[in-house]
Write a structure and sequence with these properties.
single chain; mainly alpha; 5 helices
Length: 142
């Protein structure tokens, strides 16, 4: 019986938590690049679009991980809100981290854009789940 739980836990970790961890590393590494070595983005809009994408994806991965677990039903039930919250908090920590990166600086506007990206992706996910054909009330995404 214990072996089966271990296999389920390992599958959950690989399928749900590993993508979150890998994406967080991608964000951390990209924000660790000093300004002079960072690829130049010609437009403010493109620079902020990158924030929207990074933190929108992080939010979706977190929501997916929370809704995919069964041990804590409250986390699964509030996975949308917690996904947004986690993405915003990671955005705050990333902006703080950038304060120690040469040529980079943390900005409150970037945190707001991170949160907006998370909300956009969760809103898009909700719209997709509402509009797609399938069982009514199915929010598992699987």
């Amino acid at each position: 019986m214990g072996d089966r739980r271990d296999v389920q836990r390992d599958r959950y970790w690989v399928r749900y938590l590993l993508p979150v961890a890998v994406w967080m590393v991608v964000i951390f590494v990209s924000s660790s690049i000093p300004q002079e070595q960072f690829p130049q983005v010609d437009s403010w809009v493109w620079a902020k679009l990158i924030h929207l994408i990074y933190y929108g994806v992080l939010c979706l991965l977190c929501q997916r991980a929370l809704s995919g677990q069964t041990r804590f039903p409250g986390l699964a039930r509030h996975s949308y809100l917690l996904g947004v919250l986690f993405a915003v908090l990671y955005g705050v920590s990333d902006e703080y981290h950038q304060l120690s990166t040469p040529g980079r600086h943390g900005q409150l506007t970037d945190v707001l854009i991170d949160g907006f990206g998370a909300l956009l992706c969760i809103g898009g996910l909700q719209a997709y789940r509402f509009l797609r054909p399938g069982p009514a009330g199915d929010t598992s995404g699987e």
